[in-house]
Amino acid sequence: MINFQAVVSQFFEYQTSVVVRWPLPFLLIPPLITVVITTITFSDLHLNVTNETLRVFLPDDIRALRELEELLNLFPPRDAMRDSYSIFGTSFAYWVYESKGGNAVDSEALTDLARLHSTIK
Questions:
Q1: Crossing angle of helices 23-42 and 4-21, rounded to 10°
Q2: On the CB side of 37, how many CA atoms lie within 13 Å of its CA?
Q3: Which of 6, 42, 83, 104 could potentially form a cystine with 77 if both were Cys, beta carbons 3.0 to 4.6 Å apart?
Q4: Is 101:83 a contact under the CB 8 Å cutoff?
Q5: How many C-beta atoms lie closer than 10 Å to residue 65's C-beta?
Q6: Which range marks the domain in which residue 82 is found?
Q7: What average pLDDT does range 45-59 have in this prediction?
C-alpha cells in the first residue's frame, strides 16, 4: 500500500517543478481571468439589476405616491408583512415632501422627518 504522505509529497514536488519550468502561464492566466470576469461583470449582461428592481416599485414623485396610496386603498394587500418595504431583513420608509414655497428644508419638514425617523427606529 502506498503511503499517503509520500503521494502528496511527490505531487507537490512535481507541481513545483512544473511551475519553475514554465512560470509564464502561472503569472498570466490568473490576472487574465480576473480581468475577463471583471469586464463581464461591469458590462451590461443583466447580471446586476438591483438598481432597476426597486425603481420599478417605489414611487419617485408625489403623483406616483398618491397613485400608490389610491391603489392600496382599492386593492389592500392580503399579507402586510410580505408587501412591506424590506430588503434582506432591513426595512425602510419612503418619504416624499412637497413644499408650497419650494423649500424642502423648512422646520415643518424636518420635524416631520424627525418624528418619522424616531418611530421607525
A1: 80
A2: 6
A3: 83
A4: no
A5: 16
A6: 50-120
A7: 58
In this structure, the answer to whether residues 17 and 58 fall within a common structural domain is: no
- Residues 71 and 97 occupy one common structural domain: yes
Of 85, 87, 104, 84, residue with least CA distance to 96: 104
The beta strand positions in the chain, using DSSP E, are 86-87, 90-91
70 and 112 belong to one structural domain? yes
Burial of 60: CB neighbours in 10 Å, binned 0-12, 13-18, 19+: exposed
Tell whether 71 and 87 lie within a shared domain: yes
In this structure, the answer to whether residues 23 and 59 fall within a common structural domain is no
Phi, psi of 98 (to 5 degrees): -115, 115
| pTM confidence score | 0.32
